[in-house]
């Protein structure tokens, strides 16, 4: 059996190992932040989730571009699955961010923060992707329309990512600057562990979901051929 | 537990809960697909002949126009 056929379980194992290690270290090993105290530990779950959501949307857009470039419909399911994973991780970013905001700022949400609002726009944009997709009959037209939409959404990713640096309100903390990460080496190490673990988890879920969707599609096609 | 610890634990638990929910939903979906495959197999028990696999034809029934099968060279005495 080749590694390619076992990508799902391999990434799941990597995700499990890295995330367990990262969460244990985040709770019991890393020093407590001088400014935010214990609540800063949400950083080790919130930021990796956000980076993973961006990566999923970018992957979906890349597959959409491949579909439009090659006209090969196999990329449609890959793009769709990646966007779906991005939305799941987007929900987690919003929920963990709201919890962090409640401890640090005393509110669950701040409409004045561009970073938050832009991420919400990005998230809602990709939620609308499913509405568009389900409103068109299955076929090449649906695949192409979904691909164009997924490709447009990717423009929002750098805007959302850079919003915090362009923001004037500045409640949302800036950790990564041009001078590098503004944190202790141990904190950065745990952050990297958590990021790798979260991306591996997303990859594992992506492969499982993609296999399921491919099987579902084949069954539908077969049923259609019989009827 | 302090308030901070409760909130931090909640954030980590939300993450785990969503991943678990995804696994449960996907387990149900896979079970449904498995049932559909079983139904399909029950309705059509004859395995489909793959176009890639050549049919095995007994030597006596072989078509005269068919390409001769390659034979191993006979040993030279």
General description of the model:
The complex is a heterodimer of chains A (227) and B (77). Chain A is mostly helical and 227 residues long. In chain A, strand 1 (176-177) and strand 2 form a beta hairpin. In chain A, helix 2 (43-70) packs across helix 5 (140-153). The longest helix of chain A has 42 residues, at 185-226. Chain A has seven helices and two strands. In chain A, strands 1-2 form a two-stranded antiparallel sheet. Chain A has a domain at 41-172. The model of chain A has no long low-confidence stretch (mean pLDDT 84). Chain A has helices at 7-28, 43-70, 74-104, 114-134, 140-153, 156-166, 185-226; strands spanning 176-177, 180-181. Chain B starts with a helix and ends in a 34-residue tail after the last helix. Chain B has one helix spanning 3-43. Chain B has 77 residues and is mainly alpha-helical. The radius of gyration of chain B is 30 Å and the shape is rod-shaped. Chain B contains one helix and no strands. Classes of the chains: A mainly alpha (227), B mainly alpha (77). Chain A binds chain B through residues 23, 37-39, 41-42, 45-46, 49, 88, 91-92, 95-96, 99-100, 102-103, 201, 205, 208-209, 212, 215-216, 219, 222-223, and chain B through 2-5, 7-8, 10-12, 14-15, 18-19, 22, 26, 29-30, 33, 36-37, 40.
What number is the mean pLDDT of chain B? 71
Strands side by side in the biggest sheet of chain A: 1-2
Number-wise, the strands of chain B total 0
Poorly predicted residue ranges of chain A: none
Count of helices of chain B?
1
The topology string of helices and strands of chain B comes to H
Tell me about the largest β-sheet of chain B. Answer: none
What is the global morphology of chain B?
A: rod-shaped
List keywords for this structure.
heterodimer, A: 227 residues, mainly alpha, 7 helices, 2 strands, B: 77 residues
């Amino acid at each position: 059996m080749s590694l390619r056929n076992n990508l799902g379980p391999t990434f799941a194992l990597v995700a499990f190992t890295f995330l367990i290690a990262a969460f244990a270290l985040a709770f019991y090993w890393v020093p407590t932040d001088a400014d935010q105290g214990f609540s800063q530990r949400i950083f080790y779950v919130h930021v990796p989730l956000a980076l993973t959501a961006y990566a999923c949307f970018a992957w979906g857009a890349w597959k959409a571009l491949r579909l439009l470039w090659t006209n090969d419909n196999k990329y449609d399911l890959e793009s769709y699955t990646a966007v779906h994973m991005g939305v799941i991780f987007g929900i987690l970013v919003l929920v963990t961010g709201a919890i962090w905001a409640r401890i640090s700022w005393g509110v669950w949400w701040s409409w004045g923060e561009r970073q938050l609002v832009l991420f919400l726009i990005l998230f809602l944009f990709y939620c609308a992707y499913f509405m568009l997709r389900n409103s068109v009959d299955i076929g090449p037209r649906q695949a192409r329309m979904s691909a164009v939409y997924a490709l447009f959404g990717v423009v929002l990713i750098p805007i959302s990512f850079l919003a915090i640096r362009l923001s004037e309100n500045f409640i949302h903390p800036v950790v990564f600057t041009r001078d590098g990460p503004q944190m202790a080496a141990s904190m950065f190490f745990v952050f990297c562990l958590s990021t790798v673990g979260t991306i591996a988890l997303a990859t594992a879920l992506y492969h499982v979901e993609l296999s399921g969707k491919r099987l579902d599609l084949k069954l539908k096609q077969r049923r259609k051929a019989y009827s | 537990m302090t308030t901070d610890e409760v909130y931090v634990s909640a954030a980590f638990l939300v993450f785990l809960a969503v991943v678990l929910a995804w696994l449960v939903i996907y387990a149900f979906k896979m079970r449904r697909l498995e049932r559909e495959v079983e139904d399909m197999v029950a309705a059509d028990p004859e395995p489909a002949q793959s176009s890639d696999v050549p049919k095995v034809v007994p030597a006596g029934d072989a078509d005269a126009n068919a390409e001769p099968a390659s034979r191993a060279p006979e040993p030279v005495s």
